[in-house]
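User: Can you predict the 3D structure for this chain?
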Amino acid sequence: VDFNPPGLGFFNNYDVPDLLSPQTTDNPGRCYWPYVTVDRSDRIHIVMTESVPGLGHFQRMGYTRSADAGSTWSSIQLVDTTMTISSVIDASPVSDRVIIVHTKTQDTTTQWSNDISYVVSDDGRVWDFRYGWVNVTNYADDDDSLWAYTDCDVIFDYNDYFHIVWNAQWVVDEGVYFRTYLF
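Assistant: Here is the predicted structure, written as structure tokens:
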């Protein structure tokens, strides 16, 4: 948005909770890479992924929301863990539903083998981060060579259906082929 010359834009700053507990030397708990949506009740929802040093580490995902235009925020909640920075969020334009989608690792020794998982809150306030996850892909450990990787996205349509898109690369014993497929 252009705002007065020289057109640098006009933005709101929010002080969003971004520390997951516990914090340790190896796991500082600070979340980055926020994805934001605003639901039809004007609640702001944010999902973010913690930054951990090095590759091949689990990263925790956090969630918070504000019901008063960002003046106050709910306590940050642990959403799930991932091996890639992939969590995204969207809100339905016709209901109170909000969805979080991410790549969920199947092989804890590598970041290459992921399924696509999602969790939905029907009212935008109550989440079941423990048992509410749905695995979309259900890739088989030995039989599949195409696995979800890093990027995914989700959007609700005006019929209250959500649509998920993700990329996948070809993973074989000899290595990873980075030619991307979209699903």
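The radius of gyration is 18 Å. The CA atoms of residues 23 and 86 lie 22 Å apart.
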